[in-house]
Amino acid sequence: MKKRVDRLMAKPWVAHILRMQARYTNRLGNQFAGAITYFSVLALVPIILFAFGITGMVLTVLRPDLMAMVLQSAGDALAGFGGSLQETILGQIEEALTNWGVTGGIGLATALYAGAGWVANIKSAVRAQWRPEFDTNESKRFIVWETLANMGLLVGLLIIVAITVGVSQVATSLKDVVLGLLNLDGEAWARWAFSVGPMVVSLAAGWLLFLYIFRFFPERENRPSRSSLAWGGLIGAVGLMALQYLSGIIMGAFSGNAAAAVFGPIIVLMLFFNLFARLILYVCAWVATRNQPAVAREYNKADEPLRAVRHDVEVMAVPGHWSAAREDRRRKEQASGDSTDDSGIREDSARQAWNRQRSVRGPQPRGGDPRTMPHLEPDARQSVPQDVAARGVRIGMGAGWVAGTAAGVGLGAIIAGLVGKLFRR
């Protein structure tokens, strides 16, 4: 069974998945995803305020005829609050919509600031998964320029998200129109074929979103190759599409219950944010470990396929990683009592073995080759070598015998003198 598991882990694609999981766990992926979720919810409030200001501009400047209809719909929704409270809330809504400039300005300023912090946290989480060593400090500009750069990334991200959502909605809504124009709305195969179209469009839009994140969020020196970027974007797009459909299913399940319909959207939104953050970081770990060991300076069996000669992938590892990994493996095997013969470790540490042998057996004849000598380890239970300990015991026993004999002879002479004096009396 163990051999089968070892053969399975030796497969490059299985080892890659194991490296991804080890990297994600070691780099605190779940904790970073929780932080992204928190800042996503925090940034959502000013974004809603800004959207409310945009709605007020549309209702007061572009389409004032719709104001009465919007207020009527809000009044119907607030019918259960009583007359006075209903009028107070409607008055506040109308005033906020009328003063859309102040509402939108405050919402825009706070949304940019909170959004810049949100982007900064996503960027830090992505870079934590991406760089070869976790303890390396993240390179940042002066705080003003860094904030402006994050705002620029936020604007680009919002544009791509708007394109993604817009294209998906248009593709979905045009499905029935196109089927009607072609007189195919009654054909099951046609409806199935046109249902695939929006999925392909959503997949392409999600791929574009992940390409943007993976291209501009990592540090310049750690940016991935084009092939890694393309494959990572495709995996992320498939995962995002699955999350969208899962969210739709959960929302449909909540709609049948009045109490769940109130809190359902909030629950689904927070769940979506968390799963989306985990998806981003998992894909980052997958792309990074395509040519990087799982954990810097630690042994991981899944790293072994990276040591094979491959001309299409350039392995990136911190200086001294492989020697530190061999030493870490040796320590783990000693701690577990595994006496597996590892010739690679012995050959790489031949000089250390030679020095250990000299300390145990004393000076050795010249001309010996350290790599051909037996791999000798000192016994950890011994504080000194055995021959030295035996020689010390023999010397101690001899000294004790001499001292004891001398003491016994002296004590006997004293007793004999005392007895002689008594008899002479």
TrEMBL record:
Signal peptide: none
Topology term for the membrane: Multi-pass membrane protein
TM region positions: 36-62, 100-121, 142-172, 192-217, 229-254, 266-288, 401-423
Compositionally skewed regions (Basic and acidic residues) per UniProt: 324-335, 368-380
Keyword terms, alphabetized: Cell membrane, Membrane, Transmembrane, Transmembrane helix
Localisation per UniProt entry: Cell membrane
Principal location: membrane
Region span, Disordered: 324-385
Protein name: Inner membrane protein YhjD
Keyword rRNA-binding: no
A GO cellular component entry from the record: plasma membrane
